[in-house]
Amino acid sequence: MPAESDDEYVQEISDDEADAHVVTRGKQKLAQPRGSATRGGGGFEVSRTWENVVEGADGTISGSVQGLLDAGKKRRVLKDTTPLQRGIIRHLIVIIDFSEAMVEKDMRPTRHRLTIRFAQEFVTEYFEQNPISQLGIIGMRDGLALRVSDMSGNPNDHISALQVKRDQDPQGQASLQNALEMARGALHNAPSHGTREVLLIMGSLLSADPGDIHQTITALVNAHITCTVIGLAAEIAICRTLVSRTNPSLNPATTYNVAKHEQHYRELIMAATTPPPTAGSATTADPDPGSQNSLLMMGFPSRIVEAAPSLCACHSKSTRGGYLCSRCRSKVCSLPTSCPPCGLTLILSTHLARSYHHLFPLQNWTEVSWQRAAKHPDQSQCFACLLPFPEITKEALKERSTAMIQAKQKGMTGDQTKREGGVSESGRYECGTCNSFFCIDCDVFAHEVVHNCPGCQSREGQLTSPPQEGGAMEGVEVQKTGTGKGAAVNGA
Q1: CA-CA distance, 78 to 98, in Å (whole number)?
Q2: What Rg do the C-alpha atoms of the chain give, in angstroms?
Q3: Is 382 helix (H, G, I), strand (E, B) or coil?
């Protein structure tokens, strides 16, 4: 006996239907194109990454695979390095969609689980890049706005609150207006010297709003609150209106994007760790008086360890260690924070230094060709990690020369003959200031973690001539000159 089947038997089908794997159910035909399948109720596309791998001259694919890895690393550090005026003291509200639309499995394992994981990574990276900023989280669920975590500068509070939401199943509908109103109320008392931002993660295609959402958008514009939206399903007209009105000087393509896949989704979230450029007073009809340059008083306390525990002013908990406020001598647990009694901003000097790189980003390093590498045989290893570079062979130089000749015949320039993705053919990357060569791993580490060039920093403060009479004063003058030069190098 043949096995029973739920599908209706079709005796005659065309060749096109057979190639497209069409399954006929009654009068409906469900076409499933090639290269796609359904798994667990969610559709996914087969990525044929093996087609990008080309066998090398030695008969292996190691060189092609390494090239793909280097292209992925270089793509992360190729950013716009134009020095812009940015607000390094940020006040950001993250709005996360917890509606039933987040149950979809088009992103593995689900939109909800993936969003929680990326949000926790975002919180850690946000405070790493913006240590003197504040963050708050709001959720949308059952047509209401839920306060997940209050505005705070402690990343542990936000990560713990997100971990609790991870085990709660999404349900109901999203209410964009209620969430924006709650965010506006949370940012209403934010000081004028900082930015007021909203990051919206929207997975639903509709919003259950109790009133006119356009009035809420107008209130956000009047409060000088900027909004950035990341969509998970499709582009929504009201979200486009939201980012266009709250960011009149920016291109909507930079403030509203729809995630294509998991990696693109993570890149969009992590892009919000960079402070947005501040809008000039000429771009707004009612400029914010707090956006002008002003002085801000800060305290730099020292850590203390007491013999007997005492209550802190921030949590009223009994602790032995902490920091004493420079003004009122109250004890707080951690930095950065605002002193609860007197309101003075308390930070460490390292926090201010870590926020400085947003204003003067490190310039992108250029790829080194085989010809230029041959002119510098002394730089046979990475300046930072001392990793040996690939050897310069005659075959590589000949191949490069042939490529340049063919490019000239086609009317192409030297920049057009470089590899795609900014990958260096010689495995070397050169700093335009100190002309030192680095490997791809040091390139990524310097631009994403250190935000300084090791070659430029190693040349700072070096005395070019021995001190003469009055050497102490001359040494101070040289050090000042070196410091000023370092600021110019970093801000170039």
Answers
A1: 34
A2: 28
A3: coil
For residues 435 and 175, give the distance between their C-alpha atoms in angstroms, rounded to a whole number: 54
Apex 72 CA angle, 118 and 415, nearest 5: 140
Residue type, 463: L
Would you say 316 and 341 are in contact if contact means Cβ atoms under 8 Å apart? no
- Pick from 365, 345, 450, 361: nearest CA to 128: 450
| Residues whose CB is less than 8 angstroms from the CB of residue 322 and which lie 6 or more positions away in sequence, other chains included | 303, 304, 306, 312, 331, 332, 333
pLDDT for residue 447 is more than 80: yes
CB 120 within 8 A of CB 166: no
Q: What angle do CA 123, 126, 129 make, to 5 degrees?
A: 150
- For 44, how many CA atoms within 13 A lie in the half-sphere containing its CB? 17
pLDDT of residue 185: 95
* pLDDT(192) > 50: yes
Convert the pLDDT of each residue in 102-112 to its tens digit. 999 999 899 99
pLDDT in tens, 21-41: 444 343 444 444 444 444 444
Of how many residues is the chain composed? Answer: 492
Q: How far is CA 16 from CA 21, 29, 37, in A?
A: 9, 13, 18
Which tokens in the block code for residue 159?
């990560």
CA angle 185, 190, 193 (to 5 degrees): 150
- Token pair recorded at residue 193: 């010297």
- Could you tell me the CA-to-CA distances from 270 to 93, 126, 177, 227, 232 in Å, in that order? 15, 8, 25, 15, 15
pTM of whole model > 0.85? no
Summarised one tens digit per residue, pLDDT across range 322-344 is 999 999 999 998 888 889 999 88
Averaged pLDDT, 457-477: 48
List the one residue out of 78, 86, 194, 183 whose CA is nearest residue 134: 194
Query: Which tokens in the block code for residue 292?
Result: 């002008």
Lowest mean pLDDT among 59-68, 105-114, 148-157, 403-412: 59-68
Q: Quote the CA–CA distance of 436 and 432 in Å, as a whole number.
A: 8
Reading the block at residue 264, the tokens are 């693109």
Q: Where are the alpha helices (DSSP H) in 92-230?
A: 111-129, 155-166, 176-187, 213-222
Q: Tell me which residue of 257, 290, 84 sits closest to 187, measured CA to CA.
A: 290
Name the region of 26 (left: φ>0; alpha: ψ -120 to 50; beta: rest).
left
